[in-house]
Design goal:
Elements: H1 12-24, E1 30-33, H2 35-42, H3 46-58, E2 62-66, E3 71-75, H4 77-96, E4 99-104, H5 109-115, H6 117-127, E5 136-140, H7 142-152, E6 158-160, E7 163-164, E8 169-170, E9 173-182, E10 190-196, E11 206-211, H8 215-218, E12 226-231
């Protein structure tokens, strides 16, 4: 039985039509479009596109008015709710997908930050473990990197506060609780943290992992090995 966040199978085609209308609409979720133009967007005939619009109107997902070019379409609150239903379903799926990173050689940047006294004390207090003075660098592919960035944007970070010394000023460092494990032995996992340094020389798809043990030795890792990350808020620990 579908739950209240699922789209009924008979409305899959209507939902896709709603999605395409929303995608092509302005910020106000409205647009002027003819059934011929909609048919081209959906890769269906004008007649089929016209039926889609009729169905959407009957479902009260859209409102229609006659315009100079064709029909003036606006997405209703009920239509927006249907879009959110699919968003929730897709988000749940994406959060179950494994985020896999490839072990790669680092530049020692993470280790430098961890070793700084003003940071190190906070890492111990706020992360709940005394970290090894170095990080494990993982390279993510484009898809995994996008998923990870989307997920951490929804989480409040553990903030390691910046400070000043006589020599320079150090900014805040954000950390995110994770569990890390080898792809081929996911039961062997360790509590760790993603070290998100704002001012970094790393490429965006390189992330640094902070943990209590030296992870290369703990997991007997070499460059190219695959590691799985699970953010703590969705982790079954």
């Amino acid at each position: 039985m579908p739950n209240n966040t699922e789209i009924a199978p008979e409305n899959y085609s209507n939902w896709f039509a709603l999605y395409m209308l929303s995608k092509c609409s302005e910020d106000t979720l409205s647009l002027e479009i003819s059934s011929i133009e909609l048919g081209k967007l959906l890769n269906v005939s004008q007649q089929t596109a016209s039926r889609r619009l009729n169905d959407l109107e009957e479902l009260k997902w859209i409102k229609r008015e006659v315009g100079a070019k064709g029909q003036y379409i606006s997405i209703t609150d009920r239509g927006i709710n249907e879009l959110f239903k699919m968003y929730e379903n897709l988000r749940d799926i994406l959060e179950k997908i494994l985020i896999v990173g490839e072990v790669t050689e680092g530049m020692g940047e993470g280790g430098y930050y961890v070793s700084i006294k003003g940071y190190y004390k906070q890492f111990k207090e706020k992360l709940g473990f005394e970290p090894y003075k170095g990080t494990l660098n993982l390279k993510l592919n484009e898809t995994d990197n996008k998923i990870l960035r989307e997920l951490i944007n929804q989480i409040d970070p553990v903030v390691i506060e910046g400070f000043k010394t006589m020599e320079r000023e150090y900014g805040d460092v954000h950390c995110y609780d994770v569990y890390i494990s080898p792809l081929l032995n996911r039961k062997n996992k360790r509590k760790a943290a993603i070290l998100d340094i704002k001012r970094t020389h790393h490429k965006e798809n390189i992330i640094e992992i902070l943990a209590k043990p030296y992870l290369r030795d703990y997991f007997n890792l070499k460059d190219g090995d695959k590691m799985v990350l699970k953010l703590n808020r969705i982790n079954e620990c």
